[in-house]
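Lab channel / #folding
Pinned by the channel admin:
"Please post every new chain as: sequence first, then the structure tokens as a reply. Keep commentary short and put observations after the output so the thread stays searchable."

First post following the new format, from NK:
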Amino acid sequence: MLLVVVVIFVVIVRVVVVVVIFVFVFVFVFVEVVLVIVLELVVRVEIVVVELVVEVELFVGSGRVEVIGVRHISPKRWAAIWPPRLCRDLPCACQTDAMLRPVIAVVGPTAAGKSELSLTLARTLDGEVVNADSMQLYRGMDVGTAKLTPAERGDVVHHLLDIWPVSRAASVSEYQVLARQVIDDIRARGRTPILVGGSGLYVRAAIDNLQFPGTDTDVRARLEKELENAGPGALHARLAELDPAAAAAILPSNGRRVVRALEVIELSGRPFSATLPDYQAVYPVVQVGVAMPRPELDQRIADRVARMWELGLVAEVLRLETAGLREGRTASRALGYAQVLKYLAGDWSEDEAAAQTVLATRRFVRRQESWFRRDPRVQWVAAGPDLPDRALAVIEEGSRPTPG
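Reply from TO:
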């Protein structure tokens, strides 16, 4: 009897074990199947969402312009022309806007209309203006530099205006640091930097691989003393013997730059022109040069100088004198300001100061044109009513990614 009970007990235990194992296996398989189904559903939902996002982006993107990865709303007249061509040429690789966004440089001679063009380009290309006019860096030098007023700038953000006192000597190496910080920040925020100015070295300092030689206070002081005693003409003649290329690029009246060139030659033992490397940009850049026939440009210069006098250039110089303009090595030599200072010192009449400003500006313009014409990257566009449209066409073409 006991044996029968034991056998029955063993059978029951085995049955229970088998049932438990079966239940466990069933539950495990069921849960696994459910998880597979859930994961499959999640994947399908993700696919649907991605497809919807792509459709939305394609729909929205059809009304946008893509200039090397730069997104902005275009004027209506460009909507049917620009996006299709540029979008077809965009690389398929994943790249950020900051990596692809070019710097637009608007260059050319004084009075050609660069500032007005920069406003249109900034509004069209979702951009911000970066000043590359060495004299507009100075606070209070407004009338004589034709600096746009806040009202004229409107909604366009401008950088590197009014950052230095007139008593401070200009430093292109310091400007280089400031300009690149601003450009990097603008690009990082997904906007277009519009570099604008007629100071050729400052433009190159911002966009090109320029490294500026050091300075020596003793050498600089000695050359400055020579400049004061002998005048810029004598130092320029010495520079022409040592470095004809540098002398051709620097105005004989620009004593500050002549001194700097002679300082670099003395310290480095090399020509100053050798410190300017080939045109190697550190950013993707499209340079638009504003061209104007010489007779028209000469007349615009004369009109601009007359307007400067009407707007109160003499009063501006008087005000800046109290801020140290006359002692400022750079600002005191600026076009218009140097001539008015001579008038205030009794060296010239006011009419003579105005006439000399016109002549000096025309000479300076010829140097500007020579500087920018040497740069093969500058795409020249004739000034005129359709200048913005033709400049945009140049930017579109220059913004195309290079094959390969």
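NK: Residues 217-275 form a domain with the Histone, subunit A fold (CATH 1.10.20.140).
TO: also worth noting, The longest strand covers residues 285-291.
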